[in-house]
Amino acid sequence: MIKFNNIVESIPILARTLLIILFGYAASSKFLDFSNFQIQLGQSPILTAYAGWVSWGGIPIVELLIVAFLSFPKYVYHAFFASYSLMIMFTTYIIIILNFSDFIPCSCGGVLEKLSWTEHMLLNVLFIAIAILGIVFTTNKNHKTKKLL
């Protein structure tokens, strides 16, 4: 029989795993097709002036840092917040670009660039929810530990 406590304890582990897969895949696909990633960022009406900085030090490096921090239990709580924040930024960018731009380049890599904008939004909302679950259940777990001590 599956115990409720086992399910609750598994939520942060599952959230970590899914976020590691997402950000690891996203960063590696950007690095593997880096010139295309830079060109697409340069075509963005919002990010044109910052395309070099965002492509070299911004997005893929931040994604890899989040993957690294998600890999260490000591930093996982903060990594969930970083994941949440980055996904909120991506979602905000999509909303702005869809509502205020005639030209909408996609700087996502790999299979993610094949998604429609609606699918991008749904995927982002899903991963925002996953990050929130990670935050909530990691917080609850830490509070239980502190109360027991």
From TrEMBL:
Main location: membrane
Compartment(s): Membrane
Keyword Transmembrane: yes
Keyword Metal-binding found: no
InterPro entries xrefs: Methylamine_util_MauE (IPR009908)
A GO biological process held by the record: methylamine metabolic process
Transmembrane segments: 7-27, 47-72, 79-101, 121-139
Keywords on record: Membrane, Transmembrane, Transmembrane helix
GO cellular component: membrane
Topological type in the membrane: Multi-pass membrane protein
Residue stretches making up the Methylamine utilisation protein MauE domain: 11-136
Pfam family for this entry, one: MauE
Protein known as: Methylamine utilisation protein MauE domain-containing protein
Lineage: Bacteria, Pseudomonadati, Bacteroidota, Flavobacteriia, Flavobacteriales
